[in-house]
């Protein structure tokens, strides 16, 4: 790739700004959630979203797909769902006597897996290959999904009846787990006004090709080695707290985060730096994402659960102990 020029930087910022502007015309508030969706898109990661019904989770992804002229598909997960309903299957044609492949709804740009914890593990595991390899194997033949590809899965925290825990291997493939909260009174007032008012037509401001180009550009954002070391220390502290002066945490964490967490922290910091208009990542870019990247990866012990401790509380204690590096000097050279 050619060296990035100032004009390229301006174009990137303009495209991102236009996408966000269009989504914000429809979605009220949820700035943090929206920022995390954009980070996941740029870093080519997947998102697990937890929130009660009616908080614009589906609307956000659907609107985002419209702004980038991408395909959007939604799968409502239910206990009677089978893997073929997701990835597709082989169909026998009686007239020709041949089998044809019918591709499932995972062949799209933005896939919303609604209430993912309502389906049994067999169905949830059908997403494993497509999330990691960006392909599906049907009857021994591999089929690539379109680029760009993002899975956003939602789960409802208040309904536990008839739900299944997600397999650890699948949870680990989600880049971040984001908690979506209720809107403020002012935001809710605007939401009602927009719903009862005239419908807003979303304008497509970019193409999927432009989004793919932004993803490639994101990989060129500079990350100082000291930042990567910071990510390694944070993740290491979840596995062996005693080595980092956190001996009292060892009894609360059964399993720590995997190397995917370190990779996701680094990739996420890059994407957040790009969203903030920089060609280099700073410690605060990574620190902002630590709770979202580690939240779903920590397996807490019964002792932690009995004491009412959450993954967020333990992450906060780890972050207080593992200090971020001083702002890397190399970014000053790049900025100049």
TrEMBL record:
Cited InterPro entries: ATPase_AAA-3, CbbQ/NirQ/NorQ/GpvN, ChlI/MoxR_AAA_lid, P-loop_NTPase, Sigma_54_int
A Pfam family hit: AAA_3
A GO biological-process term: regulation of DNA-templated transcription
CDD domains per UniProt: AAA
Keyword Hydrolase: no
UniProt keyword list: ATP-binding, Nucleotide-binding
Coiled-coil boundaries: none
Gene Ontology molecular functions: ATP binding; ATP hydrolysis activity
Residue span, Sigma-54 factor interaction domain: 13-156
Stated family: Belongs to the MoxR family.
Protein name: AAA family ATPase
């Amino acid at each position: 790739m050619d060296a990035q020029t100032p004009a390229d930087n301006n174009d990137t910022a303009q495209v991102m700004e236009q996408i966000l502007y269009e989504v914000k015309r429809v979605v009220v508030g949820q700035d943090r959630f929206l920022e995390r969706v954009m980070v996941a898109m740029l870093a080519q990661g997947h998102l697990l979203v937890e929130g009660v019904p009616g908080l614009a989770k589906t609307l956000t992804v659907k609107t985002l797909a419209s702004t980038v002229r991408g395909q959007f598909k939604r799968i409502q997960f239910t206990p009677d769902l089978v893997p073929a309903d997701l990835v597709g299957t082989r169909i026998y044609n009686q007239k020709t006597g041949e089998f044809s492949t019918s591709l499932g709804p995972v062949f799209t740009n933005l896939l919303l897996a609604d209430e993912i914890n309502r389906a049994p593990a067999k169905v949830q595991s059908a997403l494993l290959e497509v999330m990691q390899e960006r392909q599906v194997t049907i009857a021994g033949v591999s089929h690539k999904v379109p680029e760009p590809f993002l899975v956003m899965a939602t789960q409802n925290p208040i309904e536990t009846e008839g739900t299944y825990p997600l397999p650890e291997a699948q949870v680990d493939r989600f880049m971040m787990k984001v908690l979506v909260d209720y809107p403020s009174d002012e935001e809710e007032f605007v939401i009602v006004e927009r719903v009862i008012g005239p419908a807003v037509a979303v304008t497509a401001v970019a193409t999927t090709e432009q989004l793919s180009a932004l993803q490639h550009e994101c990989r060129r954002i500079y990350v100082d080695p000291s930042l990567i070391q910071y990510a390694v220390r944070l993740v290491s502290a979840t596995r062996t707290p005693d080595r980092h002066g956190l001996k009292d945490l060892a009894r609360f964490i059964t399993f720590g985060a995997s190397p995917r967490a370190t990779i996701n922290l680094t990739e996420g910091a890059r994407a957040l730096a790009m969203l903030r208009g920089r060609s280099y990542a700073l410690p605060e870019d990574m620190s902002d994402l630590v709770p979202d990247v580690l939240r779903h990866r920590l397996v807490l012990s019964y002792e932690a659960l009995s004491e009412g401790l959450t993954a967020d509380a333990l992450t906060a204690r780890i972050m207080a102990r593992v200090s971020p590096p001083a702002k890397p000097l190399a970014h000053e050279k790049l900025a100049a």
